[in-house]
Amino acid sequence: MDKEINEIVECITTSKEYIECIKIKEKMNQNKALLEKVENIKKLQQEYVKTNKEEVKEKLDLLEDELNTIPLYVLYMQNLEVVNNKINYVRDELNDYFYKLFNEKNC
Q: What is the pLDDT of residues 26-63, one digit of tens each?
């Protein structure tokens, strides 16, 4: 089973989207303005969760809108979505497999 799991991991980590995510992430880490914007969003998200203030939500929405206009970030998120979908698919299939396996043995 280890071999099969390693093959699944390798399939994901060698995918075009995963490799692209890594490359883009490296570029994003060199962009101070982008990193600052992401950090500000994280802080505002935490503040909004704690306070639930509308003015914080408005600032947060504005910053997120700005972030979503940065092509590098948008490309990263598109590739990340594909990678996450692959991971979710594998997770769902494994959950289904083990559910059936354990339920059939208990019957």
A: 999 999 999 999 999 999 999 999 999 999 999 999 99
Residues 2-19 as b/e (b if ≥16 CB within 10 A, e otherwise) read eeeeeeeeeeeeeeebbe
pLDDT tens digits, one per residue of 63-102: 999 999 999 999 999 999 999 999 999 999 989 988 998 8
In 3D, which of 12, 7, 10 has the Cα closest to residue 89? 12
Q: How many residues does the chain have?
A: 107
Residue 23 has pLDDT above 90, yes or no: yes
Residue 107 CA to residue 103 CA, distance in Å, equals 6
Taking each continuous run of H as one helix and of E as one strand, the counts in the chain are 5, 0
d(CA 35, CA 41): 10
